[in-house]
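Q: A reviewer asked whether we had any structural model of the full assembly, not just the individual parts. We don't, so I'm hoping you can provide one. Inputs are below.
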Amino acid sequence: MSYDFLWHIALILLSTKVFGLVTRRFQMPQVVGALLAGLLLGPAFGLNLLPSDSEMIEQLAELGVIVIMFSAGMETDVRDLKKAGKSGFIIALLGVLLPLFGGAAVSAWLSPTDDMLQNFFIGTVLTATSVSITVETLRELGKLQSRVGNAILAAAIIDDILGIIALTMITSLSGDGESMGMVLVKILLFLLFCAVAYVVGVRALDWYIHRAKDRNLRRYPIAAFVVCLLMAFAAEEYFGVADITGAFAAGLMIGATKKAGYIASKFEPVQYLFLAPVFFASIGMSVVLPKMTTELIVFCVLLVVVAVLSKWIGCGLGAKLCGFSTRECNQIGLGMVCRGEVALIVANKGVDIGLMPQELFGPVIIMVVLTTILTPILLKMAYKGETETHLQERSFGMRREDLENLDIVTDRLLKQEKEMKHQ
Amino acid sequence: MSYDFLWHIALILLSTKVFGLVTRRFQMPQVVGALLAGLLLGPAFGLNLLPSDSEMIEQLAELGVIVIMFSAGMETDVRDLKKAGKSGFIIALLGVLLPLFGGAAVSAWLSPTDDMLQNFFIGTVLTATSVSITVETLRELGKLQSRVGNAILAAAIIDDILGIIALTMITSLSGDGESMGMVLVKILLFLLFCAVAYVVGVRALDWYIHRAKDRNLRRYPIAAFVVCLLMAFAAEEYFGVADITGAFAAGLMIGATKKAGYIASKFEPVQYLFLAPVFFASIGMSVVLPKMTTELIVFCVLLVVVAVLSKWIGCGLGAKLCGFSTRECNQIGLGMVCRGEVALIVANKGVDIGLMPQELFGPVIIMVVLTTILTPILLKMAYKGETETHLQERSFGMRREDLENLDIVTDRLLKQEKEMKHQ
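A: Here is a predicted structure for the entire assembly that you could use as a starting point for your response.
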């Protein structure tokens, strides 16, 4: 056996963390750094420090994205979706539809394909908001616990679900020449399967947990992981749905059990200490820098413009329909602009199943990085005048803390974000 | 990409845990159950539920054993070694030498090879005591905090180190025809490398931890993992030493830093939730049931007999030299009989590098399982009369708890064991 994989994993862990800390210093999420690390390690710049054909890294990356989506599912409280109510739903829906059609339009105009599915796939990549940057910015502005803050958080939860539905529809339709009817039947069966698994699973687990007198046992996270893997596998194998959809559904289910917090805490190190870095690095590694044709550059620019405008206008319009003031609509729309790991996960899935050409990966990453950088800037502008003094105070307090201890601040922010969701 | 590996990992996690819980009910460690699960999943009984040629599972298992040895290193306090003192060292040394030569004698007598290295490798497999079963039994008897208990714990720590040294010597010598002198130079260089890494690493990490105001940051476990992987890789690649030796040395180093407890707590779920089950299952899977020749059966019986007698007599003799009473020597000797994961890890390494024939894996597993079952029985007999009433009380209190909540009891025992070591 060759032991090179030990060196490869060490290199991935080290580089993603170091680059992540660097990007964090520049007020960008660590994910951006991890992507950059992957870009450097891979063939994009000719360094080729990691093999691009390692089955191990490919499968670990897949496990990584499954665990990421599983954790995202665990953090989503199904009961919150009901509470989020009409306004959250309308903001999210318009904020999904406009990027979906906007992305499809860009693709239809510029991409060489006539396949409508491929075009709509580009749209799907643009649907999911990554709200953590916005939460960080709103906290800094002292505006998280406001009408606008609540609307953004509610919409972001629903946004994720709608994005997953869009992904499920499109990947299912891309299956090997099955009829539209058959695909819909399979999706319905999958939803039925998830619903039954949810109801039965939550009760069975809670019964077992109760029987074991509510103690924290190692078997719970293990059982949760088994459920996650089996649902991911079943989704792909029996329903023609993406494995990450199955993992997300499993996460929703585990998240509704009594030991959700304990289980999630055990998945956290598995994720950040091992699997997630491999996934993000592998995303970066899978970027090939193609001959930068004018077409590709135009595509890239248009993609970024459409990504920003479609969310801004879509969510803003939704907010307007729900009776928010124009100023607030502006703030809500801009707060939803940021894209993150979900866009990368979806794009990666698209390349895997042949719905997205490999060379479009670069533009997608550029889109994610630029929306991440632009969101806090635009959002601060949208609040200009409103919180002038407050802003200065807070941002100074924040910056010092940030520099001292970046991880803990994030952890706290994410916890507070989650608490916000539960209000 | 095929998604079968999701199903394979789910199967491994589920079966090792279920079998582990079953063996725990029968007062055996969960490792035994995990091995049985692997036996069933693999080719041994013709079920072949898992592919025997998966690169992914092979490499994950290797990562698993690296993380297990790394954690073992983190739990070993280098300062304890000094405190354990002369008596612990003498007990451990004789308890390593007798099994080493005893195992070599059995192999020389029955195995078809004339290679002395292969013979001594069988001896090396027999060297390392697994003390957790003994600790559990002594607690049950109310005898853990006694002169005998302390001697056993001290000897077990040194035992591990001596076993690692034996493994390092023998695997290095098996390298591709290098001269004995070159091998020794490489081992010395490796020890020097470890010593320098230890001194520099502990200081650098503690400096960084102090600089970050002693908070718990995610980067510490990540850095620890990187160090572990790099030292495991360097050991194999540059010094011709086993990767698990490098991982163990890295564990010693991380265990001496200020954040050892925090780092270890993050590796725990990575280990039990993912990597360790894959390793133990893969051990079980790698067992081929060869044509059960008379020779192999005799080998198996002799191996078990020598495993029990050599530790019993070796450690007992060592204790006698240190002035323990004959009754106490008996108790110490029997307390050290139990073998566990380290024997499996060493044997596995031997098969990998061609120092142990594949068909001897079955006997080694039988040896581990039988010594695990025999140790508590023999130990209780050795204490007969001494603690009659105490025993009944304790064992009842223990048994009820055990049935209610097996994992937590183990955790507590291991923690207490560790505390014991620190006394």
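A: Points you may want to mention in the reply: The CA atoms of residues 221 and 265 of chain A lie 9 Å apart. The longest helix of chain A spans residues 78-110.
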